[in-house]
Each structure stands twice: as structure tokens, then as C-alpha cells.
Specification:
The complex is a heterotrimer. Chain A has one domain: Aldehyde Dehydrogenase, Chain A, domain 1, CATH 3.40.605.10. Helices cover 41% and strands 17% of the residues of chain A. Chain A has helices at residues 48-67, 70-85, 88-99, 103-123, 127-131, 164-174, 190-199, 216-225, 239-249, 277-281; strands at 29-33, 39-44, 133-134, 141-149, 152-156, 179-183, 209-212, 231-233, 255-257, 283-291. Chain A is globular and about 90 Å long. Chain B has helices at 2-15, 22-26, 40-47, 56-65, 71-81, 88-100, 113-124, 143-149, 171-183, 195-199, 203-216, 237-240, 243-255, 274-291, 306-319, 337-350; strands spanning 35-36, 102-105, 135-138, 156-161, 188-192, 230-234, 260-262, 293-294, 296-298, 332-334. In chain B, strands 9-7-6-5-4-3-2-10 form an eight-stranded parallel beta sheet. A two-stranded parallel ribbon of chain B has the order 1-8. Chain B is globular, with a radius of gyration of 20 Å. The relative contact order of chain B is 0.15. In chain B, α7 (113-124) links the parallel β2 and β3 (135-138). By secondary structure, chain B is of the alpha/beta class. By secondary structure, chain C is of the alpha/beta class. Chain C folds into two domains: 12-257 and 455-481, Aldehyde Dehydrogenase, Chain A, domain 1 (3-Layer(aba) Sandwich); 262-441, Aldehyde Dehydrogenase, Chain A, domain 2 (3-Layer(aba) Sandwich). Chain C is 38% helix and 16% strand. Chain C has 14 helices and 18 strands. Chain C has helices spanning 57-76, 79-95, 97-108, 112-133, 161-174, 189-201, 215-223, 236-246, 271-283, 300-314, 335-350, 382-385, 401-409, 424-433, and strands spanning 20-21, 23-25, 28-30, 37-42, 47-53, 151-155, 178-182, 208-210, 229-233, 252-256, 262-265, 295-299, 354-356, 372-375, 392-398, 416-420, 438-441, 460-461. Classes of the chains: A alpha/beta, B alpha/beta, C alpha/beta. At the A-C interface, β4, α9, β9, α10 and β10 of A face α8, β17 and β18 of C.
């Protein structure tokens, strides 16, 4: 009796927009390969219109998400970690292929990514106490400054840390109530698209995170110029494109997180302690005055 | 929102008044002309608001439906008006106007007929061509003496009454006190409200008491109602604790027929202040807009300098305007203020600073 | 006889204005390299006050180099020493506040009451506040040893010349940066007088440099390659240009731009104070205020009552000589600004809104615009959308709190907002819904050095004032709070 190797079931990778898994409206896909050039899957090649739809989804849920209690947001981020923990092996395999690292290194990156969700989950109900202030004004007024999310954030995810880098830019944005449109690593989008499947089962309201695969050079400009996007994180772009996007972002005075050296570097840059900088950079400070008198 | 609407609707249903705030029903009860708070026309207009005072509940809902007062904002507005710089010709005008508005007051247990006569003489002729003051303000037992001292001058005699300053006596005693002063020739009665009743929310009791005192101000037999002594109602704002209470007390007194509303007795720690007075001016303005009835305002106690007095006149000018800038509608309850006004007046006319030896010590 | 206030002018004699001023570079007044000058006039009279040097690119370069030379020693000073310089400056400003207030009113056209009671006290307070931070930066929440950025290029507007100078210079110096500051073209004098305050305080040369000039001077400063930090307060349009210019550089940027604030009055508002707040919101400083409450949103049920009261109150505003202590509304800052206000007001009429202004005699010389309100305005009117930056109020109505929020937020700006209600829970609910950096509840146009100020959306990014105001002048903390590198700025906000 001869045994026939079982033919594996391949996954059709799809975008994650508004809590749903659409194909690109353009109908385009592109080939994704591992570091050695072996075919892994086809990924949707998102278009400007996909970016537009993603912004609409992100805007729609901004009110409810930013209005949710910090405790609730914290629990949902923690839930993401819980869901990921159960799929460590799947992500380790995807990361190994995507980042071109050993299984051991890939596992370490997945673990760090899970721990990063936990780290940010805990920040949800603490950031206002760290970034807010009671201001002792010289007059009979009660005066409080509180941080609020900036709004819809376009994120160009790190290119060479397809999962840990991605989590490191999404989590600090959404934990405070922002919603995001993420352009995944062009070269290695599969862990990002898989993350969408995890987010969809983590009680995260649809639209809080929208994940597009495709070309940064194609999706960046419409997002940077989009009048209904409030901030842009350029972690995954460099050189002329970064300058072009920052310039376009000036049109509606988007907050711009410039790429830092290392953001796009290979290696273990994203394993470092993330600090609070990125989270604080996507907050507005609102100061409320009220008189005190009988 | 619902609560608020509910409240307004309730006031409407219970009182027949179509809005919670004067300006709103001013549109329905349009009063073409201005009248003083005494006389038959005023009585008719106040009667048209009888629904507001028809019951304890209606009155309470009305007073609590008045717009709130933000204390910090009121203080700030009064302070800003206090920065007006009144110089030269404007200052001369203001000083003489202020002198003409002084209720020259002595309310001491140690008052003597001699002191009251001296005060009367000074009030009639403050000296150096200064105008006479508005009134001499005394205790009831000094009214006759004061009456003689100012006879024929046009200077009025005002008497405190109703168990001044605490107001702690039975109503019949207060009314007897009032009738006594009126019979002795008082032109004006400065009554105190029962702060205890007001602060405990017994508004109708306060309302009825003011009405009763107003009736007691009438001259005996034959005199027309316009000859009645004019009634100033003292709130003792220093004891009312909140500006909201001051606005409510103002409306309450005006609804009850007060000719003047007055801040203080001068006998407690906190007397007239610019913000309290500004608030009362605003209440008078709104009451006038609603009813066409013009009511006067009298800050009393603690106003000692020309500078202070001018600040009050600025408030009157910029809140109520010219129509209130006479002794008929604004008074200062004060004793030492007159001397400072006279000294400043001398300074203005001679260019020299004056000194206390050049004015009479009371 | 009416109570007419006699003129009560503040004496001009307290301030000596020189016939001409140079650029303040490296501790000395210097002529512009190309000798170019321009005149500054009193907007109330069109009288020429002085002639000041116009800085060109070469002068900008000189000033930046002076600031760079000064940066090393200044940033190396112990915080306590920098603090003492700033305390000195605060005290000297207090001492000379009469002189500076008169100067400010002359050059800007604002009422002396405001320059005396608002601008100058807040200017001194700002220096006093940031002075105290200079030796406490390690405790400010930006890491254990936060580092300054270097040379700050700062550009300020003409509406609060000295106060804006303080908002820029005080935090910059406290954190150890050095400064090249360009005051607005129409109001250079108080900044030039500030140079003299620096002299009296013994501030080391080059720490503060003042360059007078027009937009081209500002553009050169922004573009200078050795500037590490750009701080700008002014129009959104210029802010956009600046953001484009610094794109792709390492320069940090903060922007305080325009606004179109809604001042929202509910039917349970403390009505007399709301009227004062509305008046203060739009007529303070002739409406030349980025956070002015230029849109009045009034609940329908109280609209007539409020408008009557507002008109009555507007009729008592005293418009005229800025130096008269009783003036409430002064002169429009420039002919150019007057033309813009006039054009927008005409657009309001042309688009069908109803215009009202109290009778008031405006002086025959100088630039004047009567306090004006428009009723019957909708969200679609230009006067409800564009920043007028003048004493013009657009009145809109609403029925429900949700509608008020929607209308208030329906603007590309997000600087400030006002709420008037006696109901605490509604006030807080509204405050949380309004997308604006400053929300005044039952008050308006209040400022304090401890209170962060700055906008959402197209009103700019970054905060001035308070602990938050330090951030714009400190290098970002890397992982583990390491702030060693100044070359890797992350995005500003």
C-alpha cells in the first residue's frame, strides 16, 4: 500500500477592513515569497480605494472606541495576547519565513510581540495619570489636562520585522483610543494578515485596526494626503518616500512620526523596551477650565 | 435636559407663567411705560404676576427657575468695571452725584438728638456748594428729630424698622415699629427681611412680610398711596451666602412691591460689595424689562471712599444707564463716605489735598 | 446730564521709543547686512513709531551662528543658574510693565486695560513659571537627564507680541536651548525692548537673538540648516508651509495655528456671565485671538433672550484710543487685517446673514472695526467657517446637546471651545466630546502659564504652558529613558 502525502490546504490571505476580510477591490494580488525566494502565498495588492475604505471604517469606529472605558480597551488588548498565545506556533512559522530568521529567533519575536500586547494593555488606564495634569492656575478655576487620542492614524508598518515591528506600532496607537489603517510590510505581509484573524476574534470592534497589504509607495501617498486622517506613523518608510509623505501630511497638519534609524533595520531593534514615546506621540492634550465658586 | 424642561413645564402648569425667566414672559406682558414701584399702576402690574406668587410652591419654582449666577464670572465683571478710570469733569460730576445719593446714616445705640440734628444740618448743606444728600437715615425714635432738622430742605428722612438689624421679632411688632416710624414722619422705611425664613426656604413667609410692611408704610387716612413711605428692603446679603440667593431675594422683594432693594444693614461682617450690588442691578434691570416697574438699589455698609463710590456709579451707568443715575433710584447707605466725597471735591476744585480738619466730624 | 467718562489716557511719556532699531544679534544691536529697514506704525493713529532693520538670509545666518555659539555654554550651565536668569527676567518685566504695556498698546493697538491687566502680568508669570523648571527637568517625566535640542527658531504673531514671546522664549531657555526669535512685522517693538530686558538681566550674549522682518525672514529662519527646533504661532496657512519646509529634516516642530471656536450657550446657562463670556470671547483684543469664541452656538429656547442681552451689552463697549484706560476695544492691528475683516463681513452680508453693530463713533484715522454680530448664520456661511481674526461674531442656534457637539466639531480647526450651562454633568459630557485643545466651561479666554495650550487638527500640534510645554524643547526619550541622541526625533505632536 502506498501512502499518498496529504495535500495541505492553502490559505487565501485577505485584507482586514472594518472587521471583515475583503479581497482588494482592485482584484489584484502579488506573490509573497520567503527570504530564499520560495513562494508562500498570494497577498492582496491593495489600491487607493482600499485605503479610502479603510479610513472610512477607522473613522466610523473612532467615536465608540475612544469613548470606550480604558478598562475595556485594556481587556481587549489583553485578549489579543490571549488569542495569540494559542497560535504561537502558527505565527512563529510565519515570522520565520517573513523575517528570514531561525525558528528559535522567530519564536522569541512572537513571544515578544505577545508580551508587547500585554505591556500596552496595562497602559490603557494609566496613561492619563502619567500624561495628564492638574494645573494650579492663578485664579479660582479647576483646571485639568487630559490626554485624548489623536484620531485616525495611518501606519506604514516596519518592513523587516513583519510581526513584532507591526505589533509595536499598532498597539501603542490603539490602546489610547486611536483607530488605525496599517500598511503591512510590503515584502512580508502574511503575519500582518494573519493578525487580522486574531483581532477579529478578540472583541476588538471592527475598524479599530484595518490591515492592508500592498505597496507603501502606492498606499502611502493617498493616506498621507487624506484629509480625514489625523496622524501618520512613517516607521516603515525611508528616504525620498518618507519626505514626500511628511510633506503631503502637512496639508491638514497631520501629526507625523518620522522614521527612526533602526525602525527599518534588520535585526532585533524591535525587541528593545518600547518606552512610552510612541504612545504619547499619538495623543492630544485637552485642558478644561471651570470656575470654582458658590 | 429632561429635568430642566420638566421644571419649566411644571412652573407653567402651576403658575400660568409662560417661562421661567423674566425676559421670556416680558414678551407676553409688554409694559410700554416705566412706572415706580408705588402707586396704583405698579400695583396693577405686580398683580398681573400674581400667578407666580399664588402659592408657596409656585413662588419657589419661580425663584429657583431664575438663571443661576456664576460667582467667578460675576466677581470678574465687577472687578473689570472697577478698573474704569474716572477723571476731571467726569469725576466732578460723579462726586456731586454721589453726594446727592447718600443716605447719611447714624444707627448707633449711643445716638443723641444733638448728633441727629448735626447730621441733618450737614446733610442739607454739606458745604462749598455741594448738593444736599438724599436722606438722613436713623432709628425710628430719632425720626421726629431728623424731620425737624431737614424740614423744608427736600432731604428725606429714612428710618430703619422691623426690628433692625436682626429682624428677630414677631410680625405685629415689626409692623408696629414701621407704623411708628411712618407716623413720626419718615419718608422712607428700610426694613430687614427674615433671613432665617429665607434661608430655610419659607419664601412665601418673607413675601407676605414685605407686603405687610409695605401696607404699613401707607399714610393714615386720606393720603393717596403715592404718599406712602417708600420701602427699601434689606437682604443682609452677607448672610445669604450665595449669589443665587441674592438674585432670588431681589426678585422676591420686587414682586412684593419693594421700592428699593438694599444690600446690608452695615451691622455684619460682610456688607455691600461690588459684585453683590452688580447682581442686584441686573435683577432690577430684568424686573424692569419684565414689568416696566422701576426699582431702586441701595448698597450700604463699607463704602467709605470716593473711589469706591465712583465704582458703584460706573456699575449703575453701565448696567442700568442714565435712567437710574439719580437719588430717586440709587442710594449709598453710608456715614463716613460723605466726608471723603467732600474732601475729594475740595481737592478737585482747589488742586490741594484736603484734610479731616476741613470737614465736619460726625 | 449723562455720566460721560472724560478721557483718561495712560501717559506715553513712560516709554522712550528710539527713531530706529537694529537687529539684536549676539548681545548687540546690529544693522541688517543689506541695510534694509521698514517702518512700524501705531494702528490707532497711523503714526510712524520707529524704523526697524529688516533681517535677510545673511542676518538669519549670523543670528543662528550666534545662538549656536551660545548653546554650548548655556546648556552646560547648571539648571539653577539658568533658572536665576529667568527669574531675573520675570522680575524686570514686572518692574517695567507699565512701560511695556504702553509700548504694546501703541504698537499693537490693543487697549491699555488689556495690555496692563492681561498681557504683561501673564508675560512675567510665564517667565517666573518656567524659571522654576530649569533645575527640575529630571523630575518632569521626560527621563532622568533630558537634553535640550539646540537652537530654536521661533516666529510669533502680532496679536499678543510680548506674551507670545514669553510663551516661546521662557520654556526654550529653561530647558537649555538658545533662541532666534522673529516678532511679527507689524509689532516688533516690544520684542526689541525685551532685548534690553535681557541686557539688564545679564543674559549671556547670543542666548536670545531678535530678528525683525517680514515673512521672508521667517522663511529663512525655518529653512536654516542649523536650526534644531522650529516653533511657530500664526496662521494655519503659514503653518502648513512651515511643516512642508521642515519635512525630511531632523527639526522638531510645534505649531499654534488658527481656530474657529464655538462658544456654546445652553438654556440653563448663568445668563449674565454667559453674555460676558461671549463678549470677552470675541471682542477681547479686537477678536485678534486664535482661540476667540467666534461662533456663538446658542440653544434655540434661549436665543432671543441671549441676543437681546448681548446687543445691550455690546452697546456699552467703548471703542477708541488704545491708551485710554476706559477703552474696551482698540484698533485693528493693520490695514491689511482690516481689509480682511471687512471683506469677510461683506461676504457674510452677501451670503444673507443679518449684520448688526451698536452705534459707535470710530476715530477718523487709524484702523477700526466696530464690534459686529451676524445672526441667521449657518454652518455653510464663510463667516462660520473661516477665521476672521477680528471683532465679528457669527451666531448659530441648536436644539440638542448632540447637535451642539456636531456643529462645534464641524470645522478643520480644533483649538478651543466654550460651554455655558449650570448642569455639571452636561458640562463634562460636552467637554469630553469637543475636539479642542482648550475647553472653557462657564468661562472663556482664560490663560495661565501652568495650563497647557494648543490645538487639535488644523489648529496645530504641541502644547505651550505647563509641564507639557517643556516637551517641545527636549530631545525625546529613547528606550529606557535614554535621551542622549538629538538626531533621531520621533514625530512631534
Amino acid at each position: 500500500m502506498s501512502t499518498v502525502d496529504r495535500l495541505s490546504v492553502l490559505k487565501t490571505y485577505k485584507l482586514f477592513v472594518g472587521g471583515k476580510f475583503p479581497r482588494s477591490e482592485s482584484g489584484r494580488v502579488y506573490e509573497v515569497t520567503d527570504a530564499k525566494g520560495a513562494w508562500l502565498a498570494n497577498a492582496p495588492l491593495s489600491s487607493r480605494k482600499d485605503a479610502r475604505d479603510a479610513v472610512v471604517a477607522a473613522r466610523k469606529v473612532f467615536g465608540p472606541w475612544s469613548g470606550a472605558t480604558a478598562y475595556n480597551r485594556g481587556q481587549i488588548l489583553y485578549r489579543v495576547a490571549e488569542m495569540l498565545e494559542g497560535r504561537r506556533e502558527q505565527f512563529a512559522a510565519e515570522v520565520a519565513a517573513a523575517d528570514g530568521v531561525s525558528a528559535k529567533k522567530a519564536a522569541a519575536r512572537v513571544d515578544a510581540a505577545i508580551d508587547r500586547w500585554v505591556w500596552y494593555a496595562g497602559w490603557s488606564d494609566k496613561v492619563a495619570q502619567v500624561a495628564g495634569a492638574a494645573n494650579p492656575v492663578a485664579g479660582p478655576y479647576f483646571n485639568l489636562s487630559t490626554p485624548e487620542p489623536t484620531g485616525v492614524v495611518a501606519v506604514l508598518a516596519p518592513t523587516d520585522s513583519a510581526f513584532l515591528g507591526l505589533v509595536s506600532v499598532i498597539a501603542p496607537a490603539i490602546v489610547t483610543g486611536n483607530t488605525v489603517v496599517v500598511v503591512a510590510s510590503e515584502r512580508a505581509p502574511l503575519p500582518a494578515l494573519s493578525l487580522g484573524e486574531v483581532l477579529a476574534t478578540s472583541d476588538l470592534p471592527g475598524g479599530v485596526v484595518n490591515i492592508l497589504s500592498g505597496r507603501a509607495a502606492e498606499l502611502g501617498p493617498p493616506l498621507a494626503a487624506h484629509q480625514d486622517v489625523n496622524a501618520i506613523d512613517l516607521a516603515g518608510v525611508a528616504g525620498e518616500l518618507a519626505v514626500e509623505l511628511e510633506r503631503a501630511a502637512a496639508d491638514n497638519l497631520k501629526r507625523v512620526l518620522r522614521p527612526q534609524p533602526g525602525d527599518t533595520a534588520k535585526g532585533d531593534h524591535w525587541l528593545a523596551d518600547p518606552g512610552t514615546e510612541r504612545m504619547l506621540s499619538l495623543l492630544e492634550t485637552k485642558t478644561v477650565w471651570h470656575p470654582m465658586g458658590v | 435636559m429632561r429635568t430642566l424642561r420638566y421644571r419649566i413645564e411644571k412652573v407653567r402648569r402651576f403658575t400660568g407663567v409662560t417661562g421661567r425667566y423674566a425676559r421670556r414672559y416680558a414678551r407676553l406682558v409688554t409694559m410700554p411705560t416705566t412706572v415706580p414701584a408705588y402707586g396704583d399702576e405698579a400695583a396693577r402690574r405686580l398683580a398681573s404676576l400674581a400667578d407666580v406668587t399664588a402659592s408657596d410652591g409656585a413662588l419657589r419654582r419661580f425663584l429657583h427657575g431664575l438663571p443661576g449666577v456664576d460667582a467667578v464670572g460675576l466677581d470678574a465683571r465687577a472687578a473689570t468695571l472697577g478698573t474704569r478710570s474716572i477723571k476731571t469733569s467726569a469725576k466732578a460730576y460723579a462726586i456731586d452725584l454721589a453726594i446727592s445719593m447718600v443716605d447719611l446714616t447714624t444707627l448707633e445705640g449711643a445716638d443723641t438728638p444733638g448728633k441727629v440734628r448735626a447730621l441733618g444740618t450737614k446733610g442739607v448743606r454739606p458745604g462749598d456748594g455741594a448738593p444736599p444728600v438724599a436722606a438722613i437715615c436713623v432709628y425710628p425714635d430719632m425720626v421726629a428729630t431728623a424731620r425737624q432738622a431737614v424740614a423744608g430742605s427736600g432731604v428725606k428722612v429714612a428710618s430703619v424698622a422691623t426690628a433692625f438689624p436682626a429682624g428677630r421679632a414677631a410680625l405685629p411688632v415689626k409692623l408696629a415699629d414701621t407704623r411708628d416710624a411712618v407716623a413720626a414722619g419718615a419718608d422712607e422705611i428700610d426694613m430687614v427681611i427674615d433671613r432665617g425664613a429665607f434661608l430655610s426656604g419659607r419664601y412665601m413667609e418673607v413675601f407676605e412680610e414685605i407686603r405687610a410692611v409695605k401696607e404699613a408704610c401707607a399714610r393714615p387716612a386720606g393720603a393717596s398711596s403715592s404718599d406712602a413711605a417708600h420701602l427699601k428692603v434689606i437682604f443682609e446679603t452677607g448672610e445669604l451666602q450665595t449669589y443665587d440667593n441674592v438674585r432670588r431675594a431681589s426678585w422676591l422683594a420686587m414682586l412684593a412691591g419693594a421700592d428699593f432693594i438694599k444690600t446690608s444693614t452695615g451691622k455684619v461682617a460682610v456688607n455691600a460689595t461690588p459684585p453683590v450690588t452688580l447682581l442686584m442691578l441686573e435683577a432690577v434691570r430684568d424686573f424692569h424689562a419684565t414689568t416696566g416697574v422701576q426699582v431702586g438699589v441701595k448698597p450700604a455698609g463699607g463704602i467709605r471712599t470716593t473711589k469706591d463710590a465712583v465704582k458703584y456709579l460706573v456699575m449703575v451707568n453701565e448696567t442700568l444707564g442714565e435712567r437710574w443715575l439719580s437719588a430717586d433710584w440709587f442710594r449709598f447707605g453710608a456715614s463716613s463716605l460723605l466726608n471723603d466725597l467732600l474732601m475729594q471735591r475740595q481737592k478737585l476744585s482747589t488742586g490741594r489735598y484736603s484734610g479731616p480738619d476741613y470737614v465736619t466730624v460726625d | 446730564m449723562a455720566f460721560d467718562y472724560a478721557p483718561a489716557p495712560e501717559s506715553r511719556a513712560v516709554v522712550d521709543i528710539a527713531p530706529s532699531y537694529g537687529l539684536f544679534i549676539d548681545g548687540e544691536f546690529q544693522e541688517a547686512a543689506d541695510g534694509r529697514v521698514f517702518k512700524t506704525v501705531a494702528p490707532a493713529s497711523e503714526e510712524v513709531l520707529s524704523e526697524v532693520a529688516h533681517a535677510s538670509e545673511a542676518d538669519v545666518d549670523r543670528a543662528v551662528r550666534a545662538a549656536r555659539r551660545a548653546f554650548g555654554p548655556w546648556s552646560a550651565l547648571p539648571g539653577t543658574e539658568r533658572a536665576k536668569y529667568l527669574f531675573r527676567i520675570a522680575r524686570i518685566i514686572q518692574e517695567r510693565s507699565r512701560e511695556l504695556a504702553v509700548l504694546e498698546s501703541l504698537d499693537n493697538g490693543k487697549p491699555i486695560r488689556e495690555s496692563r491687566d492681561t498681557d504683561l502680568p501673564l508675560t512675567a508669570a510665564h517667565f517666573f513659571y518656567y524659571a522654576g523648571w530649569a533645575d527640575k527637568l529630571s523630575h518632569a517625566g521626560f527621563g532622568p537627564n533630558p537634553r535640550p535640542l539646540g537652537v530654536a527658531g521661533q516666529i510669533i504673531p502680532w496679536n499678543f507680541p510680548l506674551m507670545m514671546l514669553a510663551w516661546k522664549i521662557a520654556p526654550a531657555l529653561a530647558t537649555g536651548n538658545t533662541v532666534v526669535l522673529k516678532p511679527a512685522e507689524t509689532t516688533p517693538l516690544s520684542a526689541l525692548f525685551f532685548a534690553d530686558v535681557c541686557r539688564q538681566a545679564g543674559l549671556p550674549r547670543g542666548v536670545v537673538n531678535i530678528l525683525t522682518g517680514d515673512g521672508s525672514t521667517g522663511a529663512a529662519l525655518v529653512a536654516h540648516p542649523d536650526v534644531n527646533k522650529v516653533a511657530f504661532t500664526g496662521s494655519t496657512e503659514v503653518g502648513r508651509q512651515i511643516a512642508r519646509t521642515v519635512a525630511g529634516t531632523d527639526k522638531r516642530l510645534t505649531l499654534e495655528l488658527g481656530g474657529k471656536a464655538a462658544n456654546i450657550v445652553f438654556d440653563d446657562a448663568p445668563i449674565d456671565q454667559a453674555v460676558e463670556g461671549v463678549v470677552n470671547g470675541i471682542f477681547f483684543n479686537q477678536g485678534h485671538v486664535c482661540c476667540a469664541g467666534s461662533r456663538l452656538l446658542v440653544q434655540e429656547s434661549v436665543a432671543d433672550e441671549l441676543l437681546d442681552a448681548l446687543k445691550r451689552r455690546m452697546a456699552t463697549l467703548r471703542v477708541g484710543d488704545p491708551l485710554d484706560k476706559n477703552t474696551d476695544v482698540g484698533a485693528i492691528n493693520s490695514a491689511e487685517q482690516l481689509a480682511r475683516i471687512t471683506a469677510l463681513a461683506e461676504a457674510g452680508e452677501a451670503e444673507g446673514a443679518e449684520r448688526w453693530a451698536p452705534a459707535c463713533d470710530l476715530p477718523s484715522t487709524g484702523y477700526w472695526f466696530a464690534p459686529t454680530l451676524f445672526t441667521g448664520v449657518t454652518q455653510a456661511h464663510r463667516i462660520a467657517r473661516e477665521e476672521i481674526f477680528g471683532p465679528v461674531l457669527s451666531v448659530l442656534t441648536f436644539r440638542t446637546p448632540a447637535e451642539a457637539v456636531e456643529k462645534a466639531n464641524n470645522t478643520p480647526y480644533g483649538l478651543s471651545a466654550g460651554i455655558w450651562t449650570e448642569k455639571g454633568s452636561r458640562s463634562l459630557w460636552m467637554a469630553s466630546k469637543l475636539r479642542a485643545g482648550i475647553v472653557w466651561s462657564n468661562t472663556f479666554n482664560k490663560f495661565d502659564p501652568t495650563s497647557p495650550f494648543g490645538g487639535y487638527k488644523e489648529s496645530g500640534y504641541g502644547r505651550e504652558g505647563g509641564r507639557h510645554g517643556l516637551e517641545a524643547y527636549l530631545a525625546p526619550a529613547g528606550p529606557q529613558g535614554d535621551r542622549a541622541g538629538t538626531t533621531s526625533p520621533e514625530g512631534d505632536r
